[in-house]
Design brief:
Blueprint: H1 23-29, E1 37-41, H2 61-70, H3 77-92, H4 99-107, E2 108-112, H5 134-137, E3 153-158, E4 161-168, E5 171-178, E6 182-189, E7 193-211, E8 221-240, E9 246-257, H6 273-281, E10 285-299, E11 311-312, E12 317-328, H7 330-344, H8 352-355, E13 361-372, E14 378-380, E15 383-384, E16 386-396, E17 399-408, E18 413-418, E19 423-429, E20 441-449
Amino acid sequence: MDYLITGDLSKHVRLSEHYPYCDGYWWLLDRDGGAIGSIGNTGLGYGYIDEHSTEGLGGWLEPRFFHAYAIQGKQTPGETWAQAITDYINIIGGVWSDQVDRKTIEELVLLGDPSIKLGGYASSKDVPGSEESKEGRHATLQAEKPVWKAGTTWIFNVSNLDLTLNNVEGRYIDLHVKTGDLQMEVSKVEEHYYELFFTMTNLTVSLSIDFDPMVKGLSPIKIKLPQLEEINLSGRIWVDKETMGIISISLDITTPLYLTKLPLEEYNISIPAWIAEIVDSTYPLVLNAQVDIDFDRPYTLVKFPLSAGDCWGLKAATVSIELEGSIESLWLRVLYTLNKVAKLFGFRLIAPEYEKLLPVIKIAGVKMSFNLPEIFGRAYADISTFECEEIENVTVEAGSFSAYKIFSVRHIGEYWYSPEAKMFVMAKGNFNGLCPVVKDFVLELKEMRGV
């Protein structure tokens, strides 16, 4: 980690000199032991230029890592690292006015797995009958690609998403997504493809961003979307029978837009509160949007046949996306008609720039395409794009299943595929270990029919 001073203690390796024998580095390389990670500076570092003194080389931050662990109860490297930097900002301060303080927190990084519990976990001993044998967990049995039939249905529980970053003044992000059940049904079986129909109802989404990058030349980012409620998603996915790759996706989005919750003032629109309440309670504005996604070739996420030890990546592909939609309401048609009548008498009810949008507000079609690069199965010695780790029993609301456990990128993503269910029975996004303020994302099979 290049975090040592030179022999005479007068200079730091931040200069052109390189000290190749970093103790922390060799600890990390010690196989089956040693260190699980290292926290320290990667840039200028600590020290006193031209002074033969090591006093204070650890700075304020390094002992704060231990304070976060021992006093504040943080249990993973990621949590201690984030808490120490947060404490520096809140206690020491000066990061917005003093470039030294700012550089201090910017250059301190964590190298290693941020999710490992410091001190380790209690050891587990094999109990006869408590779990599968090692041979069973790493069996060479193959899971063949599933054969679906029309009418087969899977229903999933989907966890909510809540993210609030407000530890630093001027850098605020608030995102909340309340989800409903995800239902998928095999609606059609053709010679070369399956058609899946999916729905997710009654979602709620809110987003607010007030983020100052604190970089000269870059303006603050300010985004405040109104809270959207009663969002209904539905659509179809076409899956290639041969590869089980995605051919195309069609997504329909429907949600009411309540005037009382829209930031109309930002568009210089003023509507009396009583009118807004009448519109919202009778015939509110409704957003209808359609998104079509097409791949130039089937985009395969899971490679069949599947067996423990398999590792695979993603093939290059070209993706085309088309978006169009509209905003409608009976009241927009009424307003359009009344405005036409008013114009006969020489006056207008609405400005010309808004009149041309009525009676149906069209969202102009947006088309774009981009290339997805090929991603190899094993990007590095210890990083797999997708890898089937083992066969294990997993219990969800729909029951207990023998499933092939697949992980991606050091277990940030984990997925369990069950040949019995002919579908994934659980998926997890392990985000909390990377960012403690974000909860893990979980999708679990709740019910299945006609399998």
